[in-house]
Amino acid sequence: MSCRNCVVSELQFEILLKGENNIAMLDMIVEHFNRRNLTITKKEQIVMIQESGVKEFLDFSRDYMEPELIYFRLDEMPWEHLAEIETVLEMQWIDDVIHRNAVVSYSQPIVNSRNEIYAYEVLSRFTREDGSLIFPNEIFAAAKTRGRLYALDRLCRMAAVKYAAVLKKKTFINFIPTSIYSPEYCLQSTVKLANLLEIDPNQFVFEVVESEQVDDIDHLKSILNYYNNKGFQYALDDVGEGYNTLEMLGDIKPHYMKLDMKYVQGVNKDFEKQNTAKQFLKKALEIGATPLAEGIETQEDFEWLKQIGYKLFQGYLFGKPSIEPQRTIA
């Protein structure tokens, strides 16, 4: 099995032509590309064009074709209007970030009810060539636009596994399930690296990032089963925000469930948030998952959640993400 998404290489665009005028120009376009030594392949109403030739095609289509009847896609993603292709071209900088392995791992402590560090979550930060930081939401949006989610997700996972050797405590590592084609194929390098570094699999908790909506629950389960069979644990992030119903969690059976910060911050005085937090806690205990509240910034919220039975806690109250692991809680 292979996927064009797994490595950084020149993108290949599928261009779909509709309309008699556009289709009539197909052979002429192919001949022109061949004369220019630009790679192109034709199949019925579709041409495959390398990124190096896309701008030339765009210029021609605007002058002599009907661009509103032309569509494109990457790697079997949904078809989009040709006008949107400029956005993909503008995001080319993400390829350089991945090629340079320009990721830095930070860690944030996760504490127990006694204010002791139980684990760390590893968070990825990315740098430009001048050393300045790129915001995570900016880089993941660019990776999604250019079909680079797998390559970026793998880069972050591998860096986090290496960082875990320094942490020497339970380590939560984020991953995007929709970026993974097949767990046996896409995740084997993660397992091999952990074995090479002689890290006990039980140290790792792979955390599903819910911000990337998971529609295919069976695919998610196949990924989590793969990790579980290798001795790793897994957590669900931002529960309460996604996964639609708490009942679905019983089918997935996570080792940890993280209550989203929108239900945590101010919970000590907000009845609706309290109700959500209690419902979440009940479900976590029913399925044997350890409940973890994230985004805690005040002592009052910490005390309230601890009093009703939450076991683990994360947030600025205990420590901000840092390059050097925080070893004690002030």
UniProtKB/TrEMBL annotation:
Domain of life according to the entry: Bacteria
Q: Which InterPro entries match?
A: Cyclic-di-GMP_PDE-like, EAL_dom, EAL_sf
Q: Which GO terms describe its molecular function?
A: cyclic-guanylate-specific phosphodiesterase activity
Q: Which Pfam families match?
A: EAL (PF00563)
Positions of the EAL domain:
87-330
How is this protein named in the record?
EAL domain-containing protein
Q: What is the lineage of its organism?
A: Bacteria, Bacillati, Bacillota, Bacilli, Bacillales
